[in-house]
């Protein structure tokens, strides 16, 4: 079965096929044609996924769930689920680019993974983000006024 293959050896399924499986299952669940439990169980394989395309597919679909569950009791469980999925790939790509350089897909993977990790409350991600902004403000005080414009409520 495909879900078993994804769970045990996801790289034996082509990367685009993995992305399509995620996209199809999550869209079918969104449309009420598949139980969300099935789609979310299938997505659990993401704990062992490091390629950009499946992550992009999954996170695009998870954005809908995140906004739907926001301010609802299930949102906390959703965030915990997401953190379980994101932790390994976050640890793999890291918060910052390697000094040795990286390929474009790895940079894109980092961008979406770091964004979602912070969004879901990943402590290390939030701490590094705060440290990054502090260092930026310290190095260039002109950023303070720029940041204040965007951080000040309307």
Automatic annotation (TrEMBL):
Domain ERAP1-like C-terminal: 6-137
Segments forming a coiled coil: none
Similarity annotation: Belongs to the peptidase M1 family.
InterPro entries, alphabetized: ERAP1-like_C_dom, Peptidase_M1_aminopeptidases
Top-level taxon of origin: Eukaryota
Originating species: Ranatra chinensis
Protein name: ERAP1-like C-terminal domain-containing protein
